[in-house]
Amino acid sequence: MSFVTVSPAFGSNEFSFSTFQQLNTIFLSILIEAIPFVLIGVLIAGFIQIFITEEHIRARLPKNKVQAVFMSCVVGALFPACECGIVPIVRRLIEKGVPLYAGVGFLLTGPLINPIVILSTYMAFGNDMKMALLRMGVGFVAALTIALVISYLFKSNQLKQKERSLSQVKTKQLPLFQRVKGMLEHSIDEFFDMSKYLIIGAFVAAALQTYVSAQTLLLFGDGVYQSMIVMMAMAFFLSLCSEADAFIGASFKNIFPSSSILAFLVYGPMIDLKNTIMLLNVFKAKFVFILFILITLIVFLFVSLVSGI
Length: 309
Hints:
Blueprint: H1 17-51, H2 54-60, H3 65-77, H4 86-95, H5 100-112, H6 115-124, H7 129-153, H8 176-211, H9 214-218, H10 224-238, H11 245-250, H12 258-270, H13 273-282, H14 285-305
Transmembrane segments: 26-48, 69-94, 100-125, 132-154, 197-221, 228-249, 255-273, 285-306
Subcellular location: Cell membrane
Membrane topology: Multi-pass membrane protein
């Protein structure tokens, strides 16, 4: 269950002590939700950096582009991670030689359709599998499509900077204790590197939730497609943890059609405000912008196609 409680009337245009308290509560709630997953993510990133070599990845990753994308989406779907914690993992995988398009497939499916997310979706909608299956199916196909498009648009890894790989220091020759120590040291550095951008994103998301009234957005949500746009915008700015967003989405059942709820559940884990800020720290701005546009258009298109189901 999410720490952040959101109603359709979130936000206030008034600046007062009470709204500052609300800002503080939402900000801390977002951090409390995200930090455990970031910690898990940086530990895995540290493990990848020290124990996984480029040779390991080359030996196991299919040479065929489509097969590599499909495999990355399947692995992501089985990997319990949130959209914050998965960013450092993807950075390390790409630095180790995973192609950008395979990294994107993992980046998108990990937070969206892992077993914990699907179970929480099933529970949030009254033990009804329909929304959980739609989220899983539409999310997987959308992620697959986005990753394939990325494979044709970008040939380089799009990382801002290539860090010196610790594997170049012959870590395999070090004792296990030294390698574990190196993993923990690397994880600590990664945590502080990622956390400052998480804090910035969480604060901006909390400020928008506090001072921007959702009633303004609801005015544009009368039609099916308009309501989808509204719910996708709310998913982006609320920046909810993907393991808990289904409970928030289910609270809008009496206001918006199911297609809009589905758009909310698919779009938010793929891209949100705090995640975007973290991505901008890792990848070039042009790539993040194009990824944002692709996710928005493809999720909107695919949810529209299944809106009659």
